[in-house]
Amino acid sequence: MNNDPRLELISSASLFYQQGWMVGTAGNLSARLNDGSFWITASGKSKGNLQENDFVRMNLEGEVLESPNPQNCPSAETSIHQAIYSLFSKANACYHVHSVEANLMTRYIEGDNLPLPPIEMVKGLGIWQENPLVTMPVFKNYLNVPQIAQEIIERFQNKLPDIPALLILEHGVTVWADSPEKAKNQIEIAEYLFRYILASHH
Ligand SMILES: CSC[C@@H](O)[C@@H](O)C(=O)COP(=O)(O)O
Ligand SMILES: [Zn+2]
């Protein structure tokens, strides 16, 4: 595969793990290849020290195309990555992490949106305005993950989000970008915004 992104996914997962955003196997990362298939972390792997065979390559229909270790199962949240890649043709990476701060956002949500502070950092989510009024879309968490994916599809087909990020209540953030490098930056920016919101209410 000429653009195998697994080493980059491994390095970002390790970084996020060290930040405490992927502890206890939490979170999942994926990146799309030129042929439209995507590598995604296999389910239940510790994210601090992933190996190249801790992934599964899937197509947009949710079929496993390649599994370096026959015991690997796709991430339990693959349906959310499929939804993002189907909705956004330019998305080539989709990252999801669980931070304490993301889970504490519950009390600042208005309706099904999280208002973001109008600070310089939102430029990192593609918003180039002065005093931007931007919100992050929020979704309910269901045990049945495909139901979360379905609600994402229905909502975004109706209205595109302001930013390439969404928050699942009491669960964690998901971002997408045209490259793994940008997805990594966007996770860092989303987590910075959560910390800012919490600190500004102290
Ligand atoms: C503490 S793991 C929680 C999981 O159910 C899930 O939310 C998650 O992010 C990781 O699932 P995975 O199947 O390893 O990709
Ligand atoms: Zn999760």
UniProtKB/TrEMBL annotation:
Binds 1 zinc ion per subunit. Its cofactor is Zn(2+). Zn(2+) binds at H96, H98. Pathway: Amino-acid biosynthesis; L-methionine biosynthesis via salvage pathway; L-methionine from S-methyl-5-thio-alpha-D-ribose 1-phosphate: step 2/6. One of its GO terms (molecular function) is zinc ion binding. Residues 7-198 form the Class II aldolase/adducin N-terminal domain. GO terms for cellular component: cytoplasm. GO terms for biological process: L-methionine salvage from methylthioadenosine. Keywords: Amino-acid biosynthesis, Lyase, Metal-binding, Methionine biosynthesis, Zinc. InterPro entries: Aldolase_II/adducin_N (IPR001303), Aldolase_II/adducin_N_sf (IPR036409), MethylthioRu-1-P_deHdtase_MtnB (IPR017714). The keyword Transport does not apply. Its EC number is 4.2.1.109. SMART domains: Aldolase_II. It catalyses: 5-(methylsulfanyl)-D-ribulose 1-phosphate = 5-methylsulfanyl-2,3-dioxopentyl phosphate + H2O. Belongs to the aldolase class II family. MtnB subfamily. Catalyzes the dehydration of methylthioribulose-1-phosphate (MTRu-1-P) into 2,3-diketo-5-methylthiopentyl-1-phosphate (DK-MTP-1-P). This is Methylthioribulose-1-phosphate dehydratase. It comes from Aphanothece hegewaldii CCALA 016.
